[in-house]
Automatic annotation (TrEMBL):
Domain of life: Bacteria
Pfam families linked: TetR_C_7 (PF14246), TetR_N (PF00440)
Stated name of the protein: Transcriptional regulator, TetR family
DNA-binding region location: 32-51
Keywords annotated in UniProt: DNA-binding
Keyword DNA-binding: yes
Record bears the keyword Signal: no
Residue ranges occupied by any HTH tetR-type domain in the UniProt entry: 9-69
């Protein structure tokens, strides 16, 4: 049973990767299931066995993007440890995820395919808006410990992550710029920490 299952999984992954390539090259509306099947090296019937429609196939790509966003390790708040030292690894992990080539590929597909479809865009934004959870939880815990000002934790989390994305996501997705060097990653994180702590840390 395991060998056929692995073959099925490999075909499914080949279909998803082919769909990403086709969506990136041609956009959602022009891409056909026939072309996806040809690119994946499988029959059209195989594609439909895994994904009953192009919309469901695209939804799976969005789900993979979503999974990457939610795969970050939880880093619980620690009383007595400097806020900067706790936040730094959280932000560095976020920056590494934003710079991942596979993640950027999925993001480009999702963004390109949602531009002309408000329904798809709303679904994606709703999904992404639910996340950034580990940082939100961390901020809430730091507030409960009396170390951060009383601000909406989700708002503050979105703010600091927006600082990262302005350097390490949007330029790469929208303009094709290369990822940040290790030195630049460090500079972006330290600058974001400076701004966040200057705004919200209690004396």
């Amino acid at each position: 049973m395991t060998a056929p299952q692995r073959l099925t999984d490999r075909k499914r992954e080949a279909i998803i990767q082919a769909a990403i390539a086709e969506f990136r090259a041609n956009g959602f509306d022009i891409t056909s299931m026939d072309k996806i099947a040809a690119t994946a090296g499988v029959s059209k019937r195989t594609v439909y066995n895994h994904f009953p429609s192009k919309e469901e196939l695209f939804a799976e790509i969005l789900n993979q993007l979503w999974a990457r966003l939610t795969a970050e390790k939880e880093t619980p708040y620690q009383t007595g440890l400097a806020l900067r030292d706790q936040l730094r690894p959280l932000l560095m992990a976020k920056l590494r995820m934003l710079g991942d080539d596979n993640f950027l590929d999925l993001a480009r597909v999702a963004i390109a395919a949602t531009i002309h479809s408000p329904e798809r865009a709303q679904d994606m934004v709703a999904r992404l808006g639910e996340r950034e959870e580990s940082l939100t939880v961390w901020i809430r815990a730091a507030q409960a410990d009396g170390r951060l000002k009383a601000v909406d934790p989700a708002f503050a989390a979105q703010q600091v992550q927006g600082l990262l994305k302005s350097f390490a996501f949007w330029p790469q997705v929208s303009m094709g710029l290369p990822g940040l060097s290790a030195d630049m990653q460090g500079s972006v994180v330290e600058s974001a920490l400076d701004m966040f702590l200057a705004c919200y840390q209690l004396p």
